Structure to design on (155 residues):
């Protein structure tokens, strides 16, 4: 059941992500925070399903401790046409990459004070064409992220 329940709970988020413009990350983050605030019941249920999928071994089952990942849904199977991926990071940095169409990240800290991109925000949107080395500091965090059309260039 693990990841299938999580995918079901992420469907409303996927529908909103499809409407957002990654070239305006502040506005996109503001909309995601209005629709899915970090302290909302929806985020609590997503977190619960994600933790269950981690425990079941159906989420973030590839990679090494400190940097584990998996794909939840391909663009053609997601409302709005984004891929949904997950990464579980603990005090680590991932591979550099470019978001050709942007990236929409739902950040779920698993230890208090964990940061992604030096931020503690629930939602982090990276604009079209942005390049970064993803990094989690000060603990452990699960990040669920949407890539429009699955578009990303790994270096």
């Amino acid at each position: 059941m693990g990841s299938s329940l999580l995918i079901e709970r992420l469907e409303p988020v996927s529908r909103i992500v499809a409407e957002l413009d990654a070239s305006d990350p502040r506005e996109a983050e503001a909309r995601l925070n209005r629709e899915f605030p970090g302290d909302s019941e929806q985020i609590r249920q997503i977190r619960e399903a994600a933790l269950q999928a981690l425990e079941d071994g159906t989420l973030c089952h590839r990679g090494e401790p400190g940097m584990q990942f998996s794909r939840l849904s391909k663009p053609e199977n997601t409302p709005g046409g984004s891929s949904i991926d997950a990464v579980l990071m603990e005090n680590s940095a991932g591979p550099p990459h470019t978001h050709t169409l942007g990236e929409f990240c739902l950040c779920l800290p698993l230890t208090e004070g964990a940061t992604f991109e030096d931020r503690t925000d629930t939602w982090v949107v990276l604009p079209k064409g942005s390049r970064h080395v993803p990094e989690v500091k000060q603990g452990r965090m699960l990040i669920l992220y949407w890539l429009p059309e699955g578009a990303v260039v790994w270096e």
Summary: The chain has three helices and ten strands. The CA atoms of residues 99 and 152 lie 5 Å apart.
